[in-house]
Amino acid sequence: MVHLKDYENKVPIAWCPGCGNFAIFNALKQALVELKKNPPEILLISGIGQAPKLPHYLRCNAFVGLHGRSLPIATAAKIVNHELTVIVVGGDGDCYAEGGNHFIHTIRRNPDITLLVHNNQVYGLTRGQASPTCEVGFVTKVQTHGVLSPPLNPLTLAISQEASFVGRGFAGEGNHLKELIKEAILHPGFALIDILQPCVSFDHKHSYSWYQERVYTLGKEYDSQDKLTAFQKAQEWEDKIPLGIIYKKERPTFEYQQPVLKKGTLISQAVDSLKLNAVLDEFI
């Protein structure tokens, strides 16, 4: 049996009181326990920012890398040991700005990993500068006359590139988010969950109440495999904001297409030292 206490890591949490990161953290822990995943089966990968601190607070395998570089690390880890459950956590800046190029090409490759993006529309760690998802007109200490560029829509971008799982959650709907995370982890392929996460310190517009007045859950009648409808849902904002699986498509995973992995994980395969040395000698 797996229990929540199995994931407890006695490290002081440095998030602001009321931060949406806490709800995401709890939803992820509960999802892993309900899926009966033991800590050694999990690899959490992150970059830099407030959201990427999450692996510090969870007792399992973890790798904290450079800003925006989590996805190639996760892809490599999945290739080396495809039996691991690989989860990437990051903020909207980490994943969509510094990591934007890796985001696009990870969608193309479709490795069996889950990406949880804490989307609070600001750079919270560096005190509130505008992120790629920030709305036009938002005033910060850097963008003193307001943001000029329109926000990036990660959902429509992911759908346009045939991402195999595109979802949206909300930190204020913990149980729904937990179930969404479970579905993403079980999905065979790259799964994106863009999580609306209020920043109580630097964004006083998009509060919990602002979202609660607008979010709604997609019903069972919604067809997540209809691409055109998915585009329409992904573009809903301001008055109505859908939560749930926006788009889902079956695609072969990156690691499934690697012939060498049919023999088992790379870490379990024997290494021919003579052949390896011969290859290394070519670089001397």
Helix content: 25-40%
Task: Report mean pLDDT, rounded to a whole number.
Answer: 93
**Percent strand:** 15-25%
Q: What global shape is seen?
A: globular
What's the arrangement of secondary structure elements?
Layout: H1 21-34, E1 42-46, E2 61-64, H2 70-80, E3 85-91, H3 92-96, H4 100-109, E4 113-119, E5 122-123, E6 129-130, H5 154-160, E7 165-170, H6 174-186, E8 191-196, H7 208-212, E9 215-217, H8 227-234, E10 241-248, H9 273-281
Parallel strand pairs: 1-2, 1-3, 3-4, 4-8, 7-8, 9-10
Antiparallel strand pairs: 5-6, 7-10
Helix pairs in contact: 1-6, 5-8
Task: Report on this structure.
It contains nine helices and ten strands. It is an alpha/beta fold. It has one domain: 3-Layer(aba) Sandwich (Rossmann fold). β7, α6 and β8 form a beta-alpha-beta unit. α1 packs across α6. The longest helix is centred in the N-terminal third of the chain and has 14 residues. The chain is globular, with a radius of gyration of 19 Å.
In short:
By secondary structure, the chain is of the alpha/beta class. The protein is built from nine helices and ten strands. It has helices at 21-34, 70-80, 92-96, 100-109, 154-160, 174-186, 208-212, 227-234, 273-281; strands at residues 42-46, 61-64, 85-91, 113-119, 122-123, 129-130, 165-170, 191-196, 215-217, 241-248.
Descriptive labels:
about 280 residues, alpha/beta, Rossmann fold, 8-stranded mixed beta sheet, two-stranded antiparallel ribbon, about 30% helix
